[in-house]
Amino acid sequence: MKYHPVTLVTGLVVAAIFAAMLVCFQVRQTEVAVVTTFGRFSRTIDKPGFNLRLPWPIQSVHRFDNRVRNFERKYEQVTTRDARLILIDVFLGWKIKDARVFLERFGGDQMMAEERLEGILRDAKNGVVGQHPLSDFISPNPSELRFDAIEKEMLASVKPKALENYGVEVVLLGIKQIGLPQSITEKVFERMKAERDQLVKQFQGEGAGEAIRIRSEADLRRDQILAEAEAKATVIRGNAEQQAARALRTFEQNPELAVFLLKLDALEQALKERSTLVVDTRTPPFDLLRTPPTPATSK
Amino acid sequence: MNDAPETPPQPPPADAGPPQAPEAPAPAAHAPGTFEDASSQALSEALHSSFRVIKVFMIGLTLLFLCSGMFIVEPNEVVVKLLFGKPEGTGKDQLLQPGWHWAWPYPINEKVRIKVGQSHTVSSTTGWYQVTPEMAAANAQPQALGYLRPEADGYTLTADGNIIHVRATIKYRITDPIQYAFGFTNVTEVLTNIVNNAIFHASARFTADQALYKEKTAFRDAVIARVQEKIEAHEVGIALEPSDVETVAAADVRDAFEKVNQMEQARSSEISRARSYQEELVNTALGQSNAIVNAGLVSSNRIVSGVQAAALAFDDQLPQYVENPRLFQERLLAARLQRVLTNTNAKFLLPEEFSELRLQLSREPESRESTPIP
User: Fold this and answer.
1) Are both A83 and A162 inside the same structural domain?
2) CA of B132, closest CA in chain A: separation in Å?
3) N-to-C CA span, chain B
4) Domain CATH for A136
């Protein structure tokens, strides 16, 4: 029997590939692997790369996805410390921390692991929510809110149990949803409507009242301003009269002349603009028209 | 094959080309043996042909295997090349940039493509009302039922214990492709829950009025800040881009909220009008105040200067008056009457004796008619 060299090389390559498949394996960046020898734990490989093993059935390799997995389950009803019924849903992110424990507890079944996690999570949720009143979950006062603290308490409750019992690390936990039972939403809507109606009435009265207050304040302010101005003007005029009074002492030298001069000024001022004058002939200088001057007087 | 029995006639060698047709029929005594030889020869030839095809196919496969290592990284992506499952290189060298690259076929090398150039979007799933495709197409809102079904209707609880609908649409781009691709089984699920968490976290500290109307921007900022805080804490490997947060009142109380808003608007308008009145009135009063004070000053000046002038005139005229009071008075009176009579519009001189005087005082009917009627 003659062997062709190409056939021989091909056969050798194929045989080498099969042999390599039996003794070599790789662990991906996203994986962690457990090597067992005759079913008993040998070692954990948590670094990615190329690895060797004894061929099956001596050694077996169990690979698990080592990335953070999201986990969430039911939107469940829980009672707060102040006996309020709320619905709460919590999500968590978990990854395999101890692959050996994980393999021994679940045989690599991640669904089974999540079922167990659900139990731990439910216990933590009920326990923590039961220790807090509703005002710790929702409050307009930031100092009263315990939203973050509640999440931390739940995480602190879940994390050690998951790691110790299942080889699982819970890396994140958060409240996904908070709600109220259906019957309570009905009551909330009724309350909200009542509050809105009250606000409507309040705004109706408030608007008119506030407007009246502002207008009356404006009127008051205007009167104050004008009164102050009048007072100021009066003071100014008073000062002027005072100064004038000092000047009037001059007139005391001859009151008769002073009165005469003031009357003349008053007469001129009174008939200054667009006046109509009705006089008879006895009024000087029109009296000149009544009696012709005599020669004696003309002289 | 070469191990075929060596019986005459010898079959042609495998590389001898197609078999030649026999030149003369075989003798009848040799008929069975000849038939077997022909069968063997045909089988051999068929096997040779098959091996030739397989050889060509193998060579082709080998070439294909070698060429399959060529790949292109597109402009909007990076590729991480795994060597036996481990990323090649360190730091930024782990990321193959756009262009031609080569890798060994799997399982030696593995290529992981990550879309880093495009913006990704994730939306909350828990705070919004149930939307059917028909409602989404018509942009319709749900009918008020009087209650909400926890299993179907999403909503959040506000700080004042009210119910509102919130939907956050967060946009992001990948900044750490290694962490993004290898850190989480399903990043979108994790991000969705982080966004869900953020809308409840923000709702817990804003009242319904604040979240819906008065502080919408602050509410949106609170949601985004919470998402940012969480993605940094959990090293998701992304950076947020401008995102959107919507809030609406539940269908059952929407009308009530609208009514409050209308009343609040009316109240604001009324107050605003009153403030305008106040401003106008006070400004006018301030102007009038200035005018009053100025009038006072003018009056003051007039009084003082008038009296001072009169005093000066008095001093000047007193000696003449003392000299002949009657003549002085007559002279001054005549001079002043002259000015007065010159300035008057009309002058009526009555006779010395008259029985009746009638005055028509409406001298200027035109100006009265032109006076505007208040």
Assistant:
1) yes
2) 20
3) 131
4) 3.30.479.30
Judged by a CB distance cut-off of 8 A, whether residue B230 touches chain A is yes
Q: Is A245 domain-assigned?
A: no
CATH superfamily placement of domain B120-249: Band 7 domain (3.30.479.30)
Same domain, A138 and A152: yes
Asked if the Cβ–Cβ distance from B311 to A248 is below 8 Å, we say: yes
Provide the 3-class DSSP secondary structure of residue A143: coil
pTM, entire model: 0.70
Interface test with B, best of A277, A287, A290 (most B CBs within 10 A): A277
Angle formed at CA A156 by CA A151 and CA A159, multiple of 5 degrees: 115
CA distance A188 to A138: 15
User: Among A180, A213, A245, where does a domain finish?
Assistant: A180
Q: Are B87 and A29 within 8 A, CB to CB?
A: yes
In a domain, A168, yes or no: yes
Looking at residue A294, what is its pLDDT?
59
What whole-number distance in Å separates Cα of residue A99 and Cα of residue A267? 122
Query: Between residues B324 and B372, which one has the greater pLDDT?
Result: B324
- How many residues comprise chain A? 299
Ranges A66-75, A157-166, B96-105, most confident = A157-166
In this predicted structure, the answer to whether residue A103 has a pLDDT above a threshold of 50 is yes
Q: Where are the domains of chain B?
A: 1-17+32-65, 70-115, 120-249
In 3-state terms, what secondary structure has residue B7? Answer: coil
Taking CB atoms and an 8 Å limit, are B148 and A182 in contact across chains?
yes
Average pLDDT on A25-50 reads 93
Q: Is A229–B315 a contact, with Cβ atoms under 8 angstroms apart?
A: no
Within this chain, do residues A75 and A176 fall inside the same structural domain, yes or no?
yes
Confidence of residue B7 (pLDDT cuts 50, 70, 90): very low
- If asked whether residues A27 and A130 sit together in one domain, one would say no
Q: B172-202: per-residue pLDDT in tens?
A: 999 999 999 999 999 999 999 999 999 999 9
Based on the number of CB atoms within 10 Å of its own CB, is B11 exposed (0-12), middle (13-18) or buried (19 or more)? buried
Say yes or no to pLDDT of B3 above 70: no
Distance from the Cα of A164 to chain B's closest Cα (Å) equals 22
Q: Does B317 touch chain A (CB under 8 A)?
A: yes
Whether A126 and A167 map to the same domain: the answer is yes
Distance CA(B372)–CA(B374), nearest Å, equals 6
Nearest residue of B to residue A209, measured between CA atoms? B271
Contact B296 A183 (CB under 8 A): no
* Residue of chain B nearest A287, judged by CA positions: B352
Give yes or no: residues A161 and A222 share one domain: no
Helix B216-233 to helix B187-203 angle, to the nearest 10 degrees? 140
Domain that holds residue A219: 196-233
Domain assignment present for residue A57? The answer is yes
**pLDDT tens digits along A200-251:** 988 888 888 889 999 999 999 999 999 999 999 999 999 998 888 887 788 8
Instruction: Report whether A271 contacts B344 (CB < 8 A).
Output: yes
Q: In chain A, how many domains are there? A: 3
Q: Do A69 and B186 touch (CB under 8 A)?
A: yes
Chain mean pLDDT for chain B:
84
pLDDT of residue B342: 83
Say yes or no for a CB contact (<8 Å) between A196 and B257: yes
Band (B38; pLDDT cuts 50, 70, 90): confident
Report CB contact under 8 Å: B147, A185. Answer: yes
The confidence score (pLDDT) of residue B96 equals: 92
Say whether B326 sits in a helix, a strand or coil.
Answer: helix
Q: How far is A165 from chain B (nearest CA, A)?
A: 22
**CA of B271: how far to CAs of A201, A206, A214, B26, in Å?**
16, 9, 8, 126
Test B293 with A232 for CB contact under 8 angstroms. yes
Partner A contacted by B284 (CB < 8 A): yes
Q: Does B108 touch chain A if contact means CB atoms closer than 8 Å? A: no
| Whether A36 and A79 share a structural domain | no
| Residue A299 belongs to some domain of the structure | no
Residues A98 and A169 in one domain: yes
Question: Which residue of chain B is at minimal alpha-carbon distance from A253?
Answer: B318
Residue B359: helix, strand or coil by DSSP? coil
